[in-house]
Amino acid sequence: MVRHFLEVDDLTPAELATVLDMASHPATDLVLARRGVALLFEKPSARTRHSMEIATIELGGHPLYVRPEEVGLDTRESVEDVARVLMGYHAVIAARVFEHNKLERMAAVSSVPVVNLLSDDAHPIQVLADLLTIRQQVGRLDGVTVAYIGDANNMARSLAIGLSMCGARLRVAYPEGYGFSEAALARLAAADADVEATTDPAEAATGADVLYTDAWYSMGQEAEMVTRRRDFAGFQVDNALMSAAAPDAIFMHCLPAHRGDEASDEVLDGPRSVIFPQAHNRLHSARGLLEFLVRAAGNAS
């Protein structure tokens, strides 16, 4: 049966552990030999494109990057028709989209795995790299406390689900008005995700094993930059906030970073920052996921 990856809990906890184990060592089998992986991007990303292309190559496959104007989802051609065409060429369809429902519609008709490279609801491919990084740097996942400082967005939702699946928990600190939506809260409850919410960054950071942040404004939100900078005043991860965390706590950021906004340069470039090993783990976790999905579909070369 074809398996899709639209959110972290499309894997079971045991399968998630397997993917992380696969990501922890180089590829041993070229499961994508002489096969393609479609990389459909409605919005660009350096880390996502490079990690997915190299992961595909390491598994013996051929990545094909597709720009938004080449397909025009629901403008030039329906989402369903695009998926039906691409599944005849490729072993996997991976897409970075604005609306999550486009991924759901692809998955509903596709006979090959569909992978969420980012949507307005979720960012599970990033969470795989995050979990791998925490396991490497902290030495475990079970019992770990992660403090997420910033907008309770798609990144925070997926991170909460992934951490909960591994026996870890998430504390989220956000300004008033930037908490999880009702739909996100319902999704977190359905996933039985362990989340503590506060509007006090210091409260969230106290004793945490990991401090994590994301950009205050993302692609498509540039018009809100001035407003968000004002609203998020006091939510910057700086050395003072890091000092509230556990003495050996690490700092993480999914990048790109707006230096001087969500995190200070002293933290981003400091000795407790693991943002570049975290970014490099995008490659390893993508490779582990692709290998798992291809094998699960029973169509490994």
- Mean pLDDT, all residues: 96
Rg (CA only): 19 Å
Strand order of the largest sheet: 7-6-5-8-9
Helix share, percent:
40-55%
Q: How would you name the oligomeric state of the polypeptide chains in this document?
A: single chain
| Count of separate structural domains | 2
Strand content: 5-15%
CATH architecture of the largest domain: 3-Layer(aba) Sandwich
Structural class, from secondary structure content?
alpha/beta
Determine the CATH superfamily of the largest domain. Answer: Aspartate/ornithine carbamoyltransferase
Give a verbal description of the structure.
- This protein has 13 helices and nine strands.
- Helices cover 41% and strands 15% of the residues.
- The longest helix has 22 residues, at 275-296.
- With 301 residues, the protein is of the alpha/beta class.
- The mean pLDDT is 96.
- The chain is globular, with a radius of gyration of 19 Å.
- The chain has helices spanning 13-23, 46-58, 68-71, 79-86, 100-109, 124-138, 154-165, 182-190, 201-205, 225-231, 239-242, 265-268, 275-296, and strands at 36-41, 62-66, 90-96, 114-118, 145-149, 169-173, 195-198, 210-213, 250-253.
- It folds into two domains: 8-123 and 282-296, 3-Layer(aba) Sandwich (Rossmann fold); 124-279, Rossmann fold.
- It has a five-stranded parallel beta sheet with strand order 7-6-5-8-9.
- The two termini are 17 Å apart.
